[in-house]
Each structure stands twice: as structure tokens, then as C-alpha cells.
Design brief:
Layout: H1 7-16, E1 20-24, H2 28-41, E2 45-50, H3 51-57, H4 59-72, E3 77-84, H5 87-95, E4 100-103, H6 110-126, E5 130-135, E6 140-142, E7 145-147, H7 157-167, E8 171-174, H8 195-204, E9 210-212, H9 220-228, H10 241-249, E10 252-257, H11 259-275, H12 282-305
Parallel strand pairs: 1-2, 1-10, 2-3, 3-4, 4-5, 5-8, 8-9, 9-10
Antiparallel strand pairs: 6-7
Helix pairs in contact: 2-4, 2-12, 3-4, 5-6, 6-7, 7-8, 9-11, 11-12
The structure holds glyceraldehyde-3-phosphate (G3H), 1,3-dihydroxyacetonephosphate and zinc ion (ZN).
Glyceraldehyde-3-phosphate is lined by residues 24, 50, 52-53, 82-83, 142-143, 180, 258.
């Protein structure tokens, strides 16, 4: 199967009350772990690549790894640029085989965000590629941009209709209380998402696919393994899975997960290296990290996203 855009995936997900997992990929083991799980569960998939991933692994390697996954697994896969910082990066991914890009103008004011998004949409659509944009700002860290909790801003429902109309964008990432990274809430703080804002947004732009960034749940099982095997991740806290299930049943069609993959892989690798200091064959520890990723993604697809059997 060839790479697909997210258009059909989102339409079916919206109508079916489930969401597509968008998982960040940085190397072969991560691509394999994710796609093996999705392939066995017959789930559509979005594999996303950040600016940092392109700098780490090289654009061509990542595209070829995803193409290999398509040969091995008979499921629809969209290849997406995560947090595209500017037109040039988006163009490079559009020209380089991606089927979807995000232009992240969330740090600009409303008018400038519209301007940069529109420019990318015009180019992307002329090449058959779809575009995600963001309104509102999440707390946390992505590549070199750090947004403090104090500076994070919920998406204003009053702005979404104008933004979508003026830009022609295909999906919209919103800020309703999720954040990037493994430390989303302070210890003792009650995790909360603003579903009231999501409802308001859905009323303004019905049938329009919404995206949730910063949606890792930070499995305490993996945090414990990391802690017990020489790591230091005290107080890592994520979004409770029942909230993500609720989001997946709504207008949210794409749920972004990266930190959970990092934790699963790190837990596996740490466990091997901590307990077997004489190990030095990378395959010995990477295969445990890869197996953890597969287990994690299968769990997300079945228990959180509801996308199993939808390929
Ligand atoms: O939202 C950011 C993703 O987790 C990607 O992280 O920019 O460190 O690759 P990265
Ligand atoms: P997490 O850090 O919660 O996994 O979010 C990932 C993300 O939003 C990628 O764009
Ligand atoms: Zn993100």
C-alpha cells in the first residue's frame, strides 16, 4: 500500500467515534514497534517526524524506513511533519514525499498565524498534501521552543471559524490542557482537560477534525521500571487514559503520542543494561525497547484510540 493523506482516515474516525494515533518516529526500532502493532491490529496510522527527528536520523532514512513498513504491513499510513516551524521545512517535506504537514504558527499572533498557515496550505494543496495548524499554545518543550505553563493559552473558540475559513487548513490542533513532555501536572494536582472548550469549538466548526498534542499518559509502570533501573524521572505525570478515550469519541481525530514511546523504549533498554552490565550488543537492548513500543502501541490502539480493525 502507498502512503495516504489523513483525509479519509479523519472522515471515518469522526463518523466512527474513534481517533488515529500519531506516533513520533526517530529510528528503525521505533518505526518497527509501532507499525507491527498497528499491522497486527489492522489499525490506520500516522507516523510523524519532527524537525529534531529529521536532524537526528536524516529525512531520506526516515522516509525509506516508513516505506519499508508499508511493504511489511498492509495498513494505511500517513507520513506527517510534526510541528513544522516554517514554510521552508514544510516545503522540503512536501517535496520529499510526506503526505501531511503541520505548520505550527501557534506562537505568532492570530493574523501572522493565519498568514504563515495560508502560505503552507496553498503550496501543500497544490501538491495533494494536507495541512494541520495550531491555535492556542500548549505548555512544555518541543524541539528548541519551551512554553511555560504560565504562558500556555487555551484555544479561543471565537477564533476557530475565521482561522479555518481564512487558511483553508485541513485539521486544527487545539490547546485544552494537554502539554508536551512527561511532566504534565504537578504532584497532587488534579489532571484536567477543558472539554467545555472542545465542545464550543466543535459547535463553531462541525465535522472538522481536531488534533490533540501532548497526549501521552506517562505509564507509571514504565516510570517505575526506569526508576528501579538507575533512572531519575520522579513525578512524571501524564493525561489519564479515560480523558483520552473521551476525546477520541469526540471531534478529536488525531492524538499525538511521543513521550510514552520514549518511556517504553527507555524502560526496556535500562532494564537490560542495568541488570546486565556486560551486555554490549545493541540488538540485545534495542529489541527489548522495540518490544515495549509494540506492546504500548497495541494498548493505545485497543484501549484508548479505538482504531483497531478500522484499516
Ligand atoms: O511535540 C514534540 C514531539 O514530542 C517531538 O519531540 O521535537 O524532541 O523530536 P522532538
Ligand atoms: P507527548 O509529549 O505528550 O507525547 O506529545 C507529543 C506531541 O504532541 C507531538 O507533537
Ligand atoms: Zn506536539
Amino acid at each position: 500500500m502507498a502512503l495516504v493523506t489523513t483525509t479519509e482516515m479523519f472522515k471515518k474516525a469522526y463518523e466512527g467515534g474513534y481517533a488515529i494515533g500519531a506516533f513520533n518516529v526517530n529510528n528503525m526500532e521505533i518505526v518497527q514497534g509501532i507499525t507491527e502493532a498497528a499491522g497486527e491490529l489492522k489499525s490506520p496510522l500516522i507516523l510523524q517526524v519532527s524537525k529534531g527527528a529529521r536532524a537526528y536520523a536524516n529525512h531520506t532514512y526516515l522516509v525509506k524506513l516508513v516505506e519499508a513498513a508499508l511493504v511489511e504491513n498492509d495498513i494505511p499510513i500517513a507520513l506527517h511533519l510534526d510541528h513544522g516551524p516554517d514554510f521552508e521545512t514544510c516545503k522540503s517535506c512536501i517535496d520529499g514525499g510526506f503526505t501531511s504537514v503541520m505548520i505550527d504558527g501557534s506562537h505568532y499572533d492570530f493574523e501572522k498565524n493565519i498568514e504563515v498557515t495560508k502560505e503552507v496550505v496553498e503550496y501543500a494543496h497544490s501538491k495533494g498534501v494536507v495541512v494541520e495548524a495550531e491555535l492556542g499554545q500548549l505548555a512544555g518543550i518541543e524541539d528548541d521552543v519551551k512554553v511555560s505553563a504560565a504562558d500556555a493559552q487555551y484555544t479561543q473558540p471565537d477564533q476557530v471559524e475565521e482561522f479555518v475559513d481564512k487558511t483553508g487548513v485541513d485539521s486544527l490542533a487545539i490547546a485544552i490542557g494537554t502539554s508536551h513532555g512527561a511532566f504534565k501536572f504537578k504532584p497532587g494536582q488534579k489532571p484536567q482537560l477543558r472539554f467545555d472548550i472542545l465542545d464550543e469549538i466543535t459547535k463553531r466548526i462541525p465535522n472538522f477534525p481536531i488534533v490533540l498534542h501532548g497526549a501521552s499518559s506517562v505509564s507509571q509502570e514504565y516510570v517505575k521500571i526506569i526508576q528501579e533501573n538507575g533512572g531519575n524521572l520522579a513525578d512524571a505525570i501524564g493525561i489519564p487514559e479515560d480523558m483520552l478515550r473521551q476525546a477520541a469519541r469526540s471531534a478529536v481525530c488525531k492524538i499525538n503520542i511521543d513521550s510514552d514511546l520514549r518511556l517504553a523504549m527507555t524502560a526496556g533498554i535500562r532494564e537490560v543494561l542495568w541488570n546486565k552490565p556486560e551486555a554490549f550488543d545493541p540488538r540485545e537492548y534495542l529489541k527489548v525497547g522495540r518490544a515495549n513500543i509494540k506492546t504500548l502501541v497495541a494498548h493505545k490502539i485497543k484501549e484508548v484510540l479505538g482504531s483497531d480493525g478500522k484499516a
